[in-house]
């Protein structure tokens, strides 16, 4: 029974710390308190417990808004990371950019890293950006150079904030986000102090908590397409009611933890703790290595100090001995008891020693000068060598770039040649098609002309047959005429009413027209003697022509039996 009140109290503490909604308003993180009475139980009476150590911190935070912001960001990060790890179980630890908790995580992480950034100094001063801080990681970690270079080359990102968001996504996919953040935190005094205020989250101890939370994300595999996302625009709004737990969630018995459904969560928590432990062990090993290096340097400094002290003692002893010798020599010079020979020998010895000392000093000065000159030459040679190496690297880089440009130009030339060949083939095909179209059109026109001429020839043939039949009828009519009528016709010498005068010439006998021996007969009956009918396409015959072999009988002139002098002609209307 005592476990349930403790769990209820823990749940209420969690809601007290995270009872707010987070929204993004420009560059600020807006926190709004929620009226959530989900954990309020009227029948439950909270037992009297000793004051929690968190209460003084809460009272202090109520006075300082910066501490409130930092605590809120830390608690939000805990909730988001926990929800992200739990929801990743459903997808087999494989998440993409459409996953909502993952989007919330990037929004919160962005505000955590931007908390306490120094503002722009003056109108012309440079603005402190998060991207400038993230670019410094590649100086201390070689693994960050690839993602930094790829972010710089992204064509879809134009702003500094967009590049920072792309860098965070690539670091999460690389599973090195916690390590890169640790690199910055370890150098906060030398690197981050230029970008953040002293009360910023990255400059405080809460940064280690954020780093520990990011270690747990190494169990998740993220597949994010940075090119397709619009990272330059402002991020959305987070509704933290999604991260609140129902009250019955905290009343589960300990037996439910051992269910098969919860075994995956237990294993995930175990993996998270192991990963965190591994990370902490790595940090401890690094700190131990630093301590050992500091101890060795301290021991070396102590040895150097002892050696310097011994040297000082020796020099003081030598100085005192020299002073004594000088004082003894002065006493000897002053004392008159000693003979002159002893004085002269002592003076000679002193002169010799002084000359030797001066020679040794001169040699020492020469050696020092030679050493300085050698050091200068060595430095000059080293600088020249470094410059030569840099120049060689630059030349190699230029050669590689030129080779790449030559290769690209050759490829472009080959592509242009292929394009020209394709265009030439297409133009050739088009020219052939146009030529064939023209020939086909000319052929169609010729066929149409031939059909028209054939029809014209067929019509003319029909007319000639009709005229021949008319002439035959006229001959029959002429044979039926009496000799008296012929004489009268010949005496008149003009055109009869039934025959037009246009058949003959004026003054010409009308009988010459109907006489086959007359030359005018063929001119009138066969006017198209110059047409070559073999070259003209014949039109198909009509059924009437095929049956009768000529035009219908309606077109033939008939002679009236009652009055043989008046011929009657029937034509088609």
TrEMBL record:
From which residue to which does any coiled coil extend? 277-325, 350-419
Membrane as UniProt keyword? no
Q: Where is the signal peptide?
A: none
Q: Which SUPFAM superfamilies match?
A: RUN domain-like
Give residue ranges for domain RUN: 96-229
Q: Where is this region: Disordered?
A: 532-573
Q: Please verify whether the record's keywords include Isomerase.
A: no
Record key words, sorted: Coiled coil
Q: Which GO terms describe its cellular component?
A: cytoplasm
Enumerate the InterPro entries for this protein.
Answer: RUFY1-3, Run_dom, Run_dom_sf
The record, for Pfam families, names: RUN
Q: What is this protein called?
A: RUN domain-containing protein
Q: Which organism is it from?
A: Polyplax serrata
**What is the organism lineage in this UniProt record?**
Eukaryota, Metazoa, Ecdysozoa, Arthropoda, Hexapoda
């Amino acid at each position: 029974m005592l476990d349930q009140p403790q769990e209820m109290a823990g749940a209420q503490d969690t809601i007290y710390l995270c009872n707010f909604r987070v929204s993004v308003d420009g560059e600020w993180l807006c926190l709004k308190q929620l009226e959530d009475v989900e954990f309020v139980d009227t029948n439950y009476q909270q037992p009297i417990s000793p004051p929690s150590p968190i209460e003084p911190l809460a009272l202090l935070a109520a006075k300082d808004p910066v501490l409130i912001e930092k605590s809120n960001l830390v608690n939000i990060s805990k909730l988001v990371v926990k929800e992200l790890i739990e929801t990743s179980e459903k997808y087999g630890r494989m998440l993409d950019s459409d996953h909502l908790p993952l989007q919330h995580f990037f929004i919160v992480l962005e505000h955590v890293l931007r908390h306490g950034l120094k503002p722009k100094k003056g109108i012309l001063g440079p603005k402190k950006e998060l991207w400038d801080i993230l670019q410094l990681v590649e100086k201390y970690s070689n693994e960050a150079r690839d993602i930094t270079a790829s972010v710089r080359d992204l064509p879809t990102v134009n702003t500094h904030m967009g590049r920072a968001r792309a860098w965070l996504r690539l670091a999460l996919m690389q599973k090195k986000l916690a390590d890169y953040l640790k690199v910055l935190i370890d150098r906060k005094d030398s690197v981050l102090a230029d970008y953040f205020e002293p009360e910023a989250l990255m400059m405080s101890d809460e940064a280690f908590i954020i780093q520990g939370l990011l270690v747990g994300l190494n169990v998740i595999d993220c597949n994010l397409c940075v090119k397709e996302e619009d990272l330059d625009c402002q991020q959305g709004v987070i509704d933290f009611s999604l991260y609140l737990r129902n009250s019955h969630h905290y009343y589960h018995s300990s037996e439910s933890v051992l269910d098969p459904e919860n075994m995956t969560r237990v294993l995930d928590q175990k993996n998270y703790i192991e990963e965190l432990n591994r990370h902490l062990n790595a940090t401890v090993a690094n700190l131990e290595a630093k301590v050992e290096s500091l101890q060795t340097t301290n021991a070396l400094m102590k040895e150097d100090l002892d050696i310097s002290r011994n040297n000082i003692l020796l020099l003081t002893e030598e100085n005192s001995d020299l002073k004594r010798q000088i004082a003894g020599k002065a006493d000897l010079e002053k004392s008159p008891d000693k003979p002159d020979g002893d004085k002269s020998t002592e003076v000679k010895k002193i002169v010799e020693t002084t000359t030797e000392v001066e020679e040794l000093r001169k040699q020492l000065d020469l050696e020092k000068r030679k050493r300085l000159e050698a050091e200068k030459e060595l430095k000059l040679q080293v600088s020249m060598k470094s410059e030569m190496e840099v120049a060689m690297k630059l030349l190699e880089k230029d050669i590689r770039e030129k080779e790449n440009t030559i290769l690209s130009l050759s490829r472009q030339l080959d592509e242009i040649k292929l394009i020209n060949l394709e265009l030439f083939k297409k133009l050739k095909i088009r020219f052939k098609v146009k030529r064939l179209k023209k020939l086909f059109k000319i052929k169609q026109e010729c066929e149409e002309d031939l059909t028209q001429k054939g029809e014209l020839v067929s019509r003319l043939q029909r007319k000639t047959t009709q005229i021949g039949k008319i002439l035959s009828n006229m001959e029959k009519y002429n044979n039926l005429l009496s000799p008296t009528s012929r004489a009268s016709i010949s005496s008149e010498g003009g055109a009869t009413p039934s025959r037009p005068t246009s058949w003959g010439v004026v003054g010409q006998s009308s009988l010459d027209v109907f006489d086959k021996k007359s030359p005018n007969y063929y001119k009138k009956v066969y006017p198209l003697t110059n047409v070559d009918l073999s070259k003209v396409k014949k039109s198909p015959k009509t059924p009437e022509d095929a049956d009768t072999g000529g035009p219908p009988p309606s077109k033939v002139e008939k002679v009236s039996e009652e009055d043989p002098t008046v011929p009657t002609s029937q034509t088609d209307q």
